[in-house]
Amino acid sequence: MVKITKVKSGSIFETKESYSRIVAVDNWIFVSNTAGRNYRTREMSDDPVEQARQCFHNIEGALKSVGSCIEDVVQSRIFIPNVADARAVMDYVGERFHGIDPQRTVTCSPLGAPEFKVEIEVTAYRGASKAEVEHIEISL
Ligand SMILES: N/C(=C/C=C/C(=O)O)C(=O)O
């Protein structure tokens, strides 16, 4: 029997707009597009890199709640509305994913409101961090 776990993490929108921070289907873990807001205090920095830091904090906490971790991430989608913020944000994201190397999509397109400078969505596979990984390098 498939096991499905749905996690709400404190964003007021999770209830208002009927979504989960995480839906875990057996070992596959789908994390919603996550803002750089502290959901408890409702504080959010104006600085895009600080927001990215908080996005990772939120995602890591959510993954932990289902027995997973950032090292289990296999896919990432980074949304940065302002192209001018992309270099700094992606340098930070690159540091955080160093050695994890998930699949990645980056897009510079509008988010729900102008104060959101970055949002991050990931997919993880519980236990991926402990799996044997074959690294292949090709030249295209
Ligand atoms: N994308 C999101 C926006 C939420 C903002 C907020 O709680 O103010 C999210 O993280 O779900």
UniProtKB/TrEMBL annotation:
GO terms for molecular function: 2-aminomuconate deaminase activity. The keyword Hydrolase applies. Its EC number is 3.5.99.5. It is an enzyme of class 3 (hydrolase). It comes from Maliponia aquimaris. This is 2-aminomuconate deaminase. It holds the Pfam family Ribonuc_L-PSP. Keywords: Hydrolase. Signal peptide: none annotated.
